[in-house]
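User: Can you write out an input/output pair for a complex, sequences first and structure second?

Assistant: Here is one pair. Inputs:
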Amino acid sequence: MAETAWWVDRTVYQIYPRSFQDSNGDGVGDIPGIIARLDHLQWLGIGLIWLSPVFRSPMEDNGYDISDYRDIAPEFGTLADMDRLIAEADARGIGIVMDLVVNHTSAQHPWFLEARRSREAATRDFYIWRDPAPNGGPPDGRRSVFGGPAWEFSSATGQYFFHVFAPGQPDLNWTNPAMRAEIHAMMRWWLDRGIRGFRMDVIDLIGKDVDAGILEAGPTLHPHLQEMHREVLAGRKTVTVGETWSVTPETALLYCGRDRGELSMVFQFQHITHGWHPEHGKWVAEPFDVRAFKRIWNRWQAALAEDGWNALYLSNHDLARQVSRFGDAGRYRVTSAKALATVMHLMRGTPFVYQGEEIGMTNAGFERLEQFRDLETLNLHAERRAAGVSTEEFLRGANANGRDNARTPMQWDASPQAGFTTGEPWIRVNRNFREINVAAAREDDTSVLHHYRRLVALRREHPVIVRGRYVPYLEDHATIFAFERVLDGTRLAVVANLGGAPAEAEAPALAGEGRCLLASHEPRGRLEPRLRLAPWESFALLGASPPG
Ligand code: GLC
Ligand code: CA
């Protein structure tokens, strides 16, 4: 059961290796760089690292296109470096969770290179091939996520192959048991090297039925996950989290219910996509709607109250920086970053911190298209231009929600290139690095970084944070996010004003005395029936639960 699992009081930290720390001056982050920075994570109290892909890859999608699952990309290091990372992290009480990217491989994977050569190839059926439409065009009109058709013609055999993402990322055929056995063996091979689990990339796509037009949560998804659990995970000390853009509170327990034998938890995206434009998606950002945000999280907390487990996050390598998207990257950067962290870390579930979030890093603020690196952004720009959208307009969208916002180098200190590299970084460092960096934040006890460190430590100290029941308050208030966690005789009141104006509300049920565990402003020792909050103020108060 999740609430007693070995990983349950740990905070997870996501590393995007390309942008974390460069060790050799080539401008690209690498594994020796990560090892050199493990002390930062230990100081922060982190218990698990989710490592974005470091496998051998042509890097069309920065490693989410793998050409060898059992080797490390040379620009990131060697297998020996990876073994050293596992050992060095372990010595600091940190487990490594690797990214499992098995909806697709790279088109450079030997399986695909062989498959495309002939219809008789041993690995032909590892991928999804279909005949052309009667007119010679693609089998159907489906579009890929990164732009262009979802089918690519392969002239050697006269068939099309299917790719949800870029043509360089052909989808694996999960109906093929031989292919599945290869994946299972590869997963065991990594677990045997000492990693502690997997974050599973777009895993809700592996049950797809292409001919029926079903991609997400297809008919064979759960059988495949159960088989994977049986073949790989059962009986081992692991933790797993699935990336599932399609999951809802109604379907979540199918993945992480205690009797399912599938995953530990899933990333849901409702709080992310809610803020996207109905037609233009993330490229036209809607303003942050706090009420809807609360409604979504409260629903998830209720849905997984008795069974399953929530993954709590606002940021990752595909999303805008949370302080820019949900907070205020200007005047209230520090307090808004704290408020968001307070509510995320103190709900029931496992918090995931994305690199740089712990110092309140902001969106990239690029001025020109040439500064972007992400293939999704660049492909979509070409498509949007053709559809008549101006580059200026596109830049606004890309600067609000494009994936490169999260991929600018980690800001370690005020030295050139923010201490990330001694060379030319592969993507531009954010201009604000002299003000926002780890070294400066370490020196300042009121920094976002120290706030995160407290939150991470509180989770280890107070069982109510891990196991307490979740009780929402003020659900209809426009900006106040308030809830209580209750365990045995203890209650933890968590209150945050997610807005840039002062806020007030009647909340007699929350009133009472307590010990302030954490506060963005003056610590409080009691709550009055009428709550009064400064802009972006947040705090957590530990008290005794009222009798009855
Ligand atoms: C996931 C990854 C993203 C990648 C895509 C294809 O959404 O998080 O970075 O581009 O899958 O693998
Ligand atoms: Ca490097």
